[in-house]
Amino acid sequence: MITINPEASADSLKEVCSVYAEAQKPAALTGAGISVGSGISDFRSPGGLWSLFDPDEYAGLDVFLRNPEKAWELYRALGSELKDKIPNVAHRSLAELEQNGLLHGVVTQNVDNLHQRAGSRMVLEIHGDHQHLQCLQCSELIPVTDEHYQMKTVPLCTSCNYPLKPNVVLFGEAVRSLPEIESLMVDCDLLLVIGTSAQVYPAAGLPALVKHNGGKIFEFNQEPVLGSDRPGGSSFLSDFFFKGDVLQTLPLLSRLLL
Ligand SMILES: [Zn+2]
Prior knowledge:
By secondary structure, the protein is an alpha/beta fold. It is built from eleven helices and ten strands. The protein has helices spanning 10-22, 49-52, 55-58, 61-66, 68-82, 89-99, 114-118, 146-150, 178-186, 206-212, 246-257; strands at residues 2-4, 26-30, 106-108, 123-125, 128-135, 141-143, 164-168, 190-194, 216-221, 240-243.
């Protein structure tokens, strides 16, 4: 694994470019870390959403079905966490790579819509999106508004009167876009893993899959985590590790390539 930081040698930067240039189908996998610079705290971090709302107690599908009033306490907090946030330079760097034919898609664990707002077009949202409310009874999908989060009561479906939930994947619900993710990954030969430890299925399997198929991994995290805690594995999966804040490391990559 080659570490890329501000002191990286010209040779290692040149190698980044030549490995990238050889890739036919580069793609990215992103997690909470890419949106921290937009003011959205990692739910798992101290002070994050999960320290205020125990996910076991609030974030399950069973909680919504049994007690939507209680589940909506979490949804309102999530709504105010995501409200008025804008994409940062890391999101924009990925959009730029895609626009220049250097990125074939982004698989994201985030529900904040910031990749799309930055200009990325091929975005696969594993955990759904936070821009809509969803009716589990009649499948109605409606754009979420501020009023939905200001209401003291649970918003109801206007077609069938069933309680609405955010169009995000709750614990106990199936993840989204698996067939599309599979077809993006089947010939992906370079995966940028950004701001995620990729420990939750299905994201967890993607770096190893790409690696198994002979592809390369570029990791963008504060510390290298891919592969470090896999059972029986002590080595890192990443070929290049871009160390530090993604607000610096992703623009660095796009400057090198464009
Ligand atoms: Zn309905």
